[in-house]
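Most newcomers find our protein records easier to grasp once they have seen one. The structure tokens are whole numbers drawn from a learned vocabulary of backbone shapes. The record below serves as our worked example for the rest of this section.
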Amino acid sequence: MNTKRGFAAIVLAIIVGILLLGIGSYFLVYQKADRAPISVTATPTPDPTANWKRYINSKYSYSIKYPNDWQITIIGGVPEDISEGPVFQTPNCIEQGIRCATLQITTNDLRNSPYETFDSGKYYNSQYGSVQNPNITVEGEQKITFHGIPAMEKVFWQNVRIDHINPELYKYVVFVENKTAYIISLYEGYYNDDYNIKSLSDWQNHTTFNQILSSFEFTD
């Protein structure tokens, strides 16, 4: 009798051991599954400038994108790719009764000038920082980094003391690279005197301006 009970106890212990082993394996597998890293595929953010036109300046080795419905004007009657100051703007804004947005890139070759060794800050101070004009009020100026290059940013009101003309708000980005000074000016005007722009956030083309600036790159 005792032999039978002993044998039954052994069998029961084996069965319990198998059950415990199975339960332990189950939880171990699922705990590992819970700890396994979850693979998440990020959805790429669409590039709003992907289908825009691209202007390339071979003389100063840079390019910049602009919206397809904007127009480009070349100052000085020179070929487009060697212009010293291309202008990008909304076309027929006055005729359409919409805001007139303008972005212009002006370059200044410093190789044969006394500013050859100037950095962005020194060039900015020599050309804009010390200029005293009673019709200009500076809204703000600061050091920034423009595509990895030290630059200066200036926001100012023009025509602040001229009768019968609403003040105009401008933004300049100024930097020096490869012995060349770059001045990128941004402006948004109104088509009549019924509306007065109050700040940069009031620019309807503020986002578009930033997208154009972000597309600037050197081609060399």
